[in-house]
Amino acid sequence: MQETAFIWDLDGTLLNSYEAILSGIEETYAQFSISFDKEKVRAFILKYSVQDLLEQVAKERGLDVGLLNQVRAQSLAEKNAQVVLMPGAREVLAWADQQGIQQFVYTHKGDNAFTILRDLGLDSYFTEILTSQSGFARKPSPEAATYLIDKYHLDPEQTYYIGDRTLDIDFAQNSGIQSINFLASPAACNQQIEHLEDISSLSF
């Protein structure tokens, strides 16, 4: 069994990317002449996901969700330069690396995540990066966590999914692993943090 392992979410956790995401959605809406309410969209994607948003819009307007996704992905890829690190992200990744903690990514972002992490000089911290294009059922399904646990012989008691949404806590709970999250939760698996730097003071 490996010792402690971290599985990281990206958007809102390691990457401050919501403004770029919202800008990409706004451009996508404009191409299909859909009115855009930034705060309403922000609240929806934080509670659910961008995919859920696009599926709802496609259903309401009789559009092809695949085409919506394609336009949004292209728009977002052009905004990589707007994506910056969350405060403390580089430091906590380096700290975990020094501690011998094995690190992974599981994100609903597409394969553009590889480009962003490489451009930011972070890709070398991760043993494996799983995206929405890796073929696993979306969170909160435990499929991706089960794959990583089995492949790398991880100990679920010492494996932490680090995220920023209730969906991420649900994913950890369904996967039988631990949770570190910016949100409070009654889930026994969850430890709340206010800043990424707080992680180094938790007991593992």
Fold topology:
Blueprint: E1 5-8, E2 15-16, H1 18-31, H2 38-47, H3 50-61, H4 65-77, E3 84-85, H5 89-98, E4 102-106, H6 112-119, E5 128-130, H7 143-152, E6 159-163, H8 166-175, E7 178-181, E8 190-192
Parallel strand pairs: 1-4, 1-6, 4-5, 6-7, 7-8
Antiparallel strand pairs: 2-3
Protein model, in words:
It is a single chain. The protein is α/β, with parallel strands linked by helices and 204 residues long. The chain is built from eight helices and eight strands. The chain has helices at 18-31, 38-47, 50-61, 65-77, 89-98, 112-119, 143-152, 166-175, and strands at 5-8, 15-16, 84-85, 102-106, 128-130, 159-163, 178-181, 190-192. The strands form two sheets. A six-stranded parallel β-sheet has the order 5-4-1-6-7-8, sandwiched between helices. Strands 2-3 form a two-stranded antiparallel sheet. β4 (102-106), α6 (112-119) and β5 (128-130) form a beta-alpha-beta unit. α1 packs across α4 (65-77) and α2 (38-47) crosses α3 (50-61). The longest helix is centred in the first third of the chain and has 14 residues, at 18-31. The two termini are 15 Å apart. The mean pLDDT is 95.
